[in-house]
Every structure is written in structure tokens, then in C-alpha cells.
Amino acid sequence: MDRSPIISVIGTSTASPGLYELAREVGRLLARAGCTVVCGGRGGVMEAVCRGVSEEGGTSVGLLPGDIREANPYVTIPLSTGLGEVRNFAVASAGEAVISIGGAFGTLSEIGFALRSGKPVIALKSWHISEGGESPSPMIEATTAEEAVRLALEKTGRESHDRG
What we know:
By secondary structure, the chain is of the alpha/beta class. Helices cover about 35% and strands about 20% of the residues. Helix 4 (about 105-115) links the parallel strand 5 and strand 6 (about 120-125). Helix 1 (about 15-30) crosses helix 5. The mean pLDDT is about 90.
């Protein structure tokens, strides 16, 4: 069975207008590439990426910390985990690759979980970290939405299912 790539998108719940539009574009591009997007399902970057996915007719899954009513209006499939912030592990683990946009400490925990489990993490205006203070960073830097999506798809070893 040939299924679409699953990409997790993580980031700040209080996105500036610039980060919001960047995340929205990432969502559009992932949907155009035929990806299923997994995120935390709430506001900020999570809302923006789901909005972009929705605008392109794609599918987003929001793994919510508690009540399903916390979901942003653009999530296709809201799932209440009942796990609180522990759901960050599920968000980071769900994707074949992770795109991090902006972010605070919750995002940092998701980055740690993803890297610990061997997932490629693409940073787009996000945290800059290194293991033990050494270079190079285990994260892959991207400067545009297009580059972040291309790198995520390359790192999954899967081809885009571009829907035009």
C-alpha cells in the first residue's frame, strides 16, 4: 500500500504574523506534496500550518493535550490525548520527519524527543542547538518554507505525492 508521507510540524503557540504566514505556507506546500500533517492542534504555528493544509484540501491531525474543543478551526482530525504536555512526545514521534517553526520550551522538548528517536528535524526560524556544545548541529537549517518542505521529504526517503 502506498500511503502519503507523514510530517510533524511543531512550533510556538504564540506566533508573530511573520511566523504565522511562514507556517501557513509550510502547510500549503506539505498538502500540495500529498503529506499528512501532524501537530499539536492548537493556536499559533499549529493553527497556521493546519490552515495552510486546509486551504489546499489536505489532511491535518491535531494531537490535543486535553479537550477536543481546544482544537483550532482548521484541524481536519482533532484527537484528544488526555496527556497534557506529554503529548509532545506523540507529536514528535508521529512524523517521519519534523519541521520546527519558531518555538518556546514545549517546542524544544519536541525537538529533543524527535532527535532522540532518530527523526530528522528541520529548523525554520527555530531553536539552534548542538549536542554537547559541538558542531555541527543535529538539526537541519532551512531558510524558506519551500526548502523546509523539500528537506523534510528528502529525509523521509519518500517521494512527493504532489497533487498539483
